[in-house]
Amino acid sequence: xxPARYVVDGVPEALRVGDLDCDRRPDVVVAVGYGDxxxxxxxxxxxxxxxxxxxSVAGGPDGLAIADFDRNGTPDLAVAQAxxxxxxxxxxxKGGLHLGPDYQAQQSVESLDTPDLNGDGRPxxxxxxxxLPDISALLNTSPRP
Length: 145
Prior knowledge:
Radius of gyration: 15 Å
Number of strands: 11
Strand order of the largest sheet: 1-2-3-4
Mean pLDDT: 90
Distance between the termini: 45 Å
Order of helices and strands: EEEEEEEEEEE
Number of helices: 0
Helix content: under 10%
Shape: globular
Strand content: 35-45%
């Protein structure tokens, strides 16, 4: 195999794969912690990715999670921030992301997952730090569409 290389501005901290543009092909999202940005590389469908599109994220992005947080049928992106926050971006099913709410979880959030903790059909967020011995759970309270 010969690797294809895609350049982002900084050192990748996290990577997540999911269909952000609703074309049934997996796209790639990369968090660059010291660059305060996430990059979306859309899948062309021929084994290659488009050039990265940058989205600014303050607070040092670390972890990533993709889920339909607002339950409108469009994938959204949650970004763990080293400053303790979780920044949401609303997807538009065209590969674009739009700044959504920012939540405080705890200090130095490093990784995220999106289980449905309370069985209400909405993805919640579980956040883990890299320097503390506990995790935070953020229950999704978005209204049903």
